[in-house]
Amino acid sequence: MKYVAVGFLFLCILHVHFRGKVRLPFMRQLFDHSSFMAPINLFMQVFSRVPAQPFPDPEPWADLAPLQQNWQVIRSEAVNLLALQKIKAAEQNNDAGFNSFFKTGWKRFYLKWYAAGHPSAERFCPQTVALLRGIPSVKAAMFAELPPGAKLNPHRDPYAGSLRYHLGLSTPNDDRCFIEVDGQRHSWRDGQSVIFDETYIHWAVNGSETNRVILFCDIERPMRFRWAQAINRWLGRTLMTAASSPNETGDQTGVISKLFTISYVMGRYRRRYKEWNKTAYQVTKAGLIIGLVGLIVWL
Fold it and tell me: Which residues are in the Aspartyl/asparaginy/proline hydroxylase domain (predicted)?
């Protein structure tokens, strides 16, 4: 039975790897976080009502129209947060989902995150929060800033239960500031929105001289059957809420993000070890991987 389970996991990873035209190097994909979620994501993609394409037709999400209709209201609250310097990186390395993005200057302010509570969002952005509450398909939302010169490296998001919605608020309106999803490029424009499947390889860069601020949302993936939709909703409510991260003291921090703080501290020692002796680091890493595989086979 264990060989069947390991074999199934490997097949799921292959599905993730070969989905789309753009791929990560296979060894990187093998140990990527999206591979650990591969069995769940295979379920989401098999029973999805959304065609398998990087930029799906936005027509099924007519309920999102109030966001675009009120984009200037949303922008005013985002601009106010910028002035207050509230759109920022996590201060305590307690953002499991986006910690690697902060290294290149990306910043965020959470407006909603599944079932987690963010009182700071209600305090600073009451109108945007009210708009989001009126749209049940929006499971998470934030203001996301990408300063001039910042870049997000190619990656897949780990969870296929949602799709990504971007609404331009204060952007360069410049083709040098763009996101590329599975080889297809989109440049942000003020007041314009786009929906894409974040489980395809995507990356972004702001090659202009102007800051970029957008409304960034997770919208629930529509499923073919009610039971599949219920499973998706339950997984989002449990798994994704556990990855919640605070804007300020008083906001909820999920258990995954709390554990990530410990992992981050351990990672500092790992990086020091690698800098001290790269060969020893590679041998140790290979030994741990072989040992883990051996343990799985033995069990």
Answer: 68-222
